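Run log // design_07
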């Protein structure tokens, strides 16, 4: 039997633990233009800013004919229970090797294979590509858009990472998925921030999106993330479209690290402990900011001593977050600390917030 590029792609995906494969044409995604214009201000760091490049694969590869999409499940059983210590949550997708690294390596290997066998031109992308991942995934037939705003794939469900390869090979496109969301609305009802509504998804309210921002969070954002340090899995856990995971998490510190340890991490400890996970590329300051916000949401008096270490931080984002966390805790013991900060703090906006919380 003749070896086709499609059969090589499927075999590669199967042998390398990918849950789903899809292929589609590299025609422009013209229908996306309007929504991209409307959501331009919610783009995160690595998303392509040029809307035309997000729509047209041929602005990235002029001879592009097809796009190969691969999905890998990151779903894991959590086999640990929390103790009563001050801990935060990390999304299961951020536990273990950074999926960008895994995806980029595997997509690179597949690209090499296609190049050697068919002299193909291939450009692999894992999350940092120019196109709209979800639109590419839907066109490739790998899945459909669920009410929880994610793409739900046939085998891997919604807890999957995507990557794609733009190629000049003319490949047979997959059929559009005929599956659809059961509309059970468990995701809508379980989302703690109201980010999901049937038919619309408010990304700016999503904890996963908020915890990855690199700026100072607003007071409301700080409160809304709860104890989440990076990402949020709630709407995925309740979705029955996610198959039973094969992998287990058995280390409590991996999924629920101690907030004290996060805040005490030096840059080198951060690199060795979290540098190779998906959190690594966001940097230590972001996870420390989230840890401070989480402390402010615990309602527990012992949080104050941990926050105190940051009230003189040279990092303004962390210093400001620490002050807001003390205010958010709302403890009498925090009042004296705020009064003392008010005396030496030089940033007017921080002083104004302290003033309003005590004397306003
Ligand atoms: S990830 Fe969390 S906050 Fe975001 S939509 Fe799902 S449940 Fe809501
Ligand atoms: S939880 Fe229910 S409504 Fe939400 S995405 Fe899953 S199947 Fe659809």
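design_07 sequence
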């Amino acid at each position: 039997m003749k070896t086709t590029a499609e059969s090589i792609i499927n075999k590669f995906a199967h042998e390398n633990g990918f849950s789903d494969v899809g292929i589609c044409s590299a025609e422009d995604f013209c229908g996306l233009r309007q929504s991209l214009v409307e959501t331009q201000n919610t783009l995160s760091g690595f998303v392509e800013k040029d809307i035309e490049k997000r729509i047209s694969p041929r602005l990235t590869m002029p001879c592009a004919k097809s796009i190969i999409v691969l999905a890998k499940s990151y779903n894991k059983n959590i086999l640990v229970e929390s103790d009563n210590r001050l801990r935060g949550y990390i999304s299961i997708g951020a536990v273990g090797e950074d999926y960008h690294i895994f995806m980029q390596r595997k997509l690179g290997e597949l690209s090499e294979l296609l190049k050697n066998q068919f002299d193909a031109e291939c450009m692999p992308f894992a999350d940092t590509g120019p196109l709209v991942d979800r639109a590419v995934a839907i066109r490739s037939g790998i899945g459909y858009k669920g009410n929880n705003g994610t793409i739900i794939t046939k085998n891997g469900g919604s807890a999957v990472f995507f990557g794609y390869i733009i190629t000049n090979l003319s490949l047979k496109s997959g059929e559009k998925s005929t599956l659809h969301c059961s509309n059970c609305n468990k995701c809508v009802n379980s989302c703690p921030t109201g980010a999901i509504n049937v038919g619309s998804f408010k990304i700016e309210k999503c904890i996963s999106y908020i915890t990855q921002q690199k700026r100072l969070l607003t007071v409301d954002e700080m409160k809304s993330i709860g104890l989440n340090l990076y990402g949020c899995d709630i709407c995925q856990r309740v979705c029955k479209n996610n198959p039973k995971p094969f992998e287990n998490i058995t280390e409590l510190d991996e999924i629920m690290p101690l907030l004290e340890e996060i805040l005490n991490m030096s840059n080198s400890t951060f690199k060795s402990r979290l540098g190779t996970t998906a959190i690594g590329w966001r940097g230590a300051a972001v996870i420390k900011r989230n840890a401070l916000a989480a402390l402010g949401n615990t309602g527990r008096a012992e949080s104050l001593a941990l926050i105190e270490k940051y009230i003189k931080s040279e990092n303004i984002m962390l210093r400001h977050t620490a002050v807001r966390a003390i205010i958010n805790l709302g403890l009498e013991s925090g009042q004296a600390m705020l009064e003392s900060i008010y005396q030496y703090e030089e940033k007017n906006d921080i002083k104004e917030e302290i003033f309003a919380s005590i004397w306003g």
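Residues 279 and 336 are 35 Å apart (CA to CA).
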